[in-house]
Write a structure and sequence with these properties.
Blueprint (H helix, E strand, L loop, with lengths): L4 E5 L6 H14 L7 E5 L2 H11 L4 E5 L17 H6 L4 E4 L2 H6 L4 H13 L3 E6 L3 H5 L3 H12 L11 E5 L13 H18 L2 H6 L2 E4 L7 H5 L6 E4 L6 H8 L5
Parallel strand pairs: 1-2, 1-8, 2-3, 3-4, 4-5, 5-6, 6-7, 7-8
The structure holds 2-phosphoglycolic acid.
Amino acid sequence: MRKPVIAGNWKMYKTVSESVDTALALKPLVANANHCDVIIAPVFTALKTVADRLEGSNVHVAGQNCSTEVEEGAHTGEVTAAMLRDVGASHVIVGHSERRQFYFETDSMVNKKCQAAITAGLIAILCVGESLEQREQGTAERVVSGQLTGGLSGLTVSDLDRIIVAYEPVWAIGTGRTATPEQAQEMHAFIRRVFADGYTKTAAGAMRILYGGSVKPDNIAGLMSQTDIDGALVGGASLKADSFAQIVNFGRT
Ligand code: PGA
């Protein structure tokens, strides 16, 4: 059985005190959520404080990015995966479409970041997804499989225990335009086939594949009803504790 994952990507929002307030408001609301892994990804500056304040709770903390470099060194503005681990992060988001689009991250950089995350003992949440243009041109599957094979290049089957995939169609991120559960399911099933072909059926069956892109309390249940959707990476709706908690606790009262 794949344990669902509900992860909140806070992007470049919130000061340290705002981050702590949201995290502490979230904590009791999801305290009984043993059915899934709950993760929040604050900005770098708030990571340590938030992780400290959540210690002992069931809410995990993630970085939103890490360096391609494994070792510390002269790389101004960068943070290693090990440094994220040092401040209490257990996960890191890698290859988010905003980083690919605005910071020119390539599959080879994303691959190095996945490797760096695994080396540091973190779980990488590898984001993939096509643009609207690519979907309209009928190349969505080719784009996504290229991002997967490029991003995971050199990883062994046992490394996959430390990978979570997030399928986030670029046209659905922050637009209010969610993929329908059926559209998402189709791509998730395709992603699982890519793992079955590239690795093993067992590894493919165990891989957790999250959907991301305008996930809200009112559409999570439909998405989660699909066989190959194992959770969500949530942006906007994760910024408020109550809406994120509703997504975590979907289908429960
Ligand atoms: P959104 O963002 O939920 O605001 O669409 C999702 C993401 O970018 O991870």
